[in-house]
Amino acid sequence: MKINSPLDAYKYLPGTNCGRCGEDTCMAFASHLIDRSKSGEDCLPMVEEDKYAKKLEELEKLLAPEIREVTIGTGEKSVTIGGDDVLFRHKLTFFNKTAYAYDITDTMDDKELEERINTIQTFKKFYVGEFLNLDMVAVRCVSGKPETFADTVKKVIGLTELPLVLCSFDPAVLKAALEVAADKKPLMYAANQENWKEVAGLAKEYEVPVTLFAPNDLDLLKSMAKTFAEMGLENLVLDPGTFPTGKEMKTTFENFLKIRRAGIDGDGEVAYPIMAVPLTAWMAYDDDVSASYWETVVASVLTVKYGDIMIMHSIEPYALLPEVHLRDTIYTDPRKPVTVDPGVWEVGSPTADSPVIVTTNFALTYYTVESDISSNKIDCYIVVADTEGIGVEAAVAGGQLTADKIKKTLENAKFDLKEKTNYNTVILPGLSARLQGDVEDKVGSRVLIGPADSGRLPGWLEKNWPPQDK
Amino acid sequence: MSDKLKLSDLNNILKDLDVESLEGVTIEGDIELDIQGGGGMNPAMAYALGHEAAQISLHVANIARMLGYPVDQLFAQCLGAGGEAAALQTEPAIEELLQAKFDVARSSEWNTPIQEVTLGATSADGGSRDHTITLGGEKAMPFYFDAEMPNRNYVTMDVFDMPISMAKAVKSNYEDVMGDPAEWAKKVVNEYNADMVTIHLISTDPLINDTPAKEAAKVVEDVLQAVDVPIVIGGSGNPQKDPEVLEKAAEVAEGECALLASASLNLDYERVAKAATDYGHAVLSWTQLEINAQKELNRKLMKQCNVPRESIVMDPTTAALGYGLDYAYSNMERVRLSALMGDDELNFPISSGTTNAWGARESWMKQSPLKEDSDWGPREYRGPIWEIVTGLSLALAGNDLFMMMHPTSVQVLKEITQTLYGNIEAKNPDITNWITAEV
């Protein structure tokens, strides 16, 4: 965006502090415009009253992200890519996670095609309270025949709601597919140096987003982007080519860095989402496991550094699991501490003889403790105190983890230690040892000090649990 | 069938349609409209005719413009200001690519190189290593085009002083050497291409074997005998015992310029620092995902303990993929960016305990404990890639030295980091028509 201080945005707001946006003041609202948690349209007076129309328009121009957003597909499953404003995620956050497309071809038999699509669209992996999924299907024209490709695209549309990438360099092939798929707003792949005029015509005629492909030629890529924009085509995706190995791969990485840096720094002519094709790893490796591994490696590098959409081939779990997790890692908003719900939670099947272990609601702490315990098949209760998403050491120092907090957590969960357990004992994290006396007084239980690292809980419990005297 | 219509006939037609006629217009030449289909003035026909008439009016307007008549003004008056553009806009027909030159600036903010730290000492410098390894020296973010990266990334592989429990996929590589740290060290160097070896003296933990420091130090001697690469000496992680263990180990390794792992704020870091300075080693400054704590510890090591700058490596903590890697990644990236921009309390090479990836259940569990999850597939492939992706993401955040465990992970991580470093020659496939590739 072109402005970076709430004051800059405030100038365009009504300044009436009407509160209809949910904020007390226009200044508070302005700061949410800058951190992109709210948009201009959330200011209802500006939307409703004509006298603000011009200011709203100006404001939205200033607030528009540096990297253009491009939407592919329709309905619930549609994906939006691009939209970034920073080069490093800690400076704000990255928006619109990288869209992962997996390929199918028009030479696959129906059974294989159905199975692949089924795997792609049903894949799910639980993570911090939700499921990670895959986003798109890329249909490659290998047959070279427009009608064969169109038939396959039709089949794919019948099988899945996921947005599509239609891949061919032959305008006749692309046209045949668009005839059956244009209303699904697929991404057309791709215009290149030879076919760009015809492909631009198709993008215009069918009103679909289009990828520009100029392998390792940033001048050509920029020239095409400029030309398409001049023709009124701005739903563009840039593919500088993904060379899978050697020095060319280093150049590929540098091309991604260069395009994104130029875009964020204000070169509007290349400020579009970038596409990677890690699938090319399969052209460099013969055996499936090596190819899949290298594809995941290339995808990882380009997920971290600026790929907004990518096409991959391997649908093996050992490819998909690290890919979706890494993408989540990079696109998680670093400004929000990740928390879990406070309460008393069971791990395994605890009984009255099981230990009661205290931790924080910082997701990382919680999941670490939880997995340390569950992976050792220990049955226990975990008391998750609401420390506002702060880890043990800092929460003790900052007063977010206190005896009162622990007491309140037990009370809210209606967990009476004397009634539910035989030992009336809680185990505090080693890093909160200094709360011992306080917890004994407030909670009225015995307090044991556990290890500083929950990785040592299994060994510690072996020695210290059950407590010697009841 | 096709009717021919002369422009001069328009007047009559437009009259019928209740539209102002084109009075006083005389047309030179013979403009004809081709109208497909039969007579009558149905809406489609009227639309088509209107379109053609508009085209003609543009044509006529152009003639008028050529004659110097202010046509645009007239159109503006007739149609209202907003209508003008819409009425006259035509799409630019572009026949040739508009040429553009791509250009991007090099970063001007990165003006301070990372401190170089050399590990290991050869006989020339009073040690017995075959070669040394230099970490750091970067003047830009890793593998960026802004400045040449002077030193590649290195991998040190874990060796333990006792048999330990580990993921099956890892264990299968070490069953023959577990319990013999010297053989273990030889195996990782000779067979798995480790750049360095980390000997973890975990048996010294009072909660494990409580091996006396002096006895543990002997294992360090064995490892130094067995291999000639630079080494890292690790304690058990017990904050009470570690300073003593590292002290004794540092003493027997005097002059070898090992990396002592680690000094941290929750143990007697002064004692660890002193062991490093007294016996000629470097020290690993370890903090937990907190940039300010990292600054504080580095400052204390430099100012309070007089550890020279060229003897400090940092470990800002590695959390596994899916278990806080987002914090670890951004923490490291911030550390490195601050260093490049001149923060001399953070300006050191970085080390990652990439082995932590094996703590993620995705890396070792046979299958997902959740029945809602899609099949996790064979774990022998899942584990190594978990370690690779964890390390690789940190390589991009600025990490220099990787502490790792699985031979496949080491091999692939070295391959990709050295590819990005520019060290790998390979013949690339022709990707210009990747779409039709047989894969």
UniProtKB/TrEMBL annotation, chain B:
Function: Part of a complex that catalyzes the reversible cleavage of acetyl-CoA, allowing growth on acetate as sole source of carbon and energy. Probably maintains the overall quaternary structure of the ACDS complex.
Protein name per the record: Acetyl-CoA decarbonylase/synthase complex subunit delta
Quaternary structure (record): Heterodimer of delta and gamma chains. The ACDS complex is made up of alpha, epsilon, beta, gamma and delta chains with a probable stoichiometry of (alpha(2)epsilon(2))(4)-beta(8)-(gamma(1)delta(1))(8).
Biological process annotations from GO: methanogenesis, from acetate; one-carbon metabolic process
NCBIfam families (alphabetical): cdhD (TIGR00381), PRK04452.1-1 (NF003375), PRK04452.1-2 (NF003376)
Gene: cdhD
Coiled-coil regions, chain positions: none
Domain (CO dehydrogenase/acetyl-CoA synthase delta subunit TIM barrel) ranges: 116-390
HAMAP family: CdhD
UniProt pathway: One-carbon metabolism; methanogenesis from acetate
Taxonomic placement: Archaea, Methanobacteriati, Methanobacteriota, Stenosarchaea group, Methanomicrobia
This protein's UniProt keywords: Methanogenesis
Family, similarity comment: Belongs to the CdhD family.
InterPro entries to which the protein is assigned, alphabetical: Ac-CoA_synth_d_su_TIM-brl, ACDS_complex_subunit, CO_DH/Ac-CoA_synth_dsu, Dihydropteroate_synth-like_sf
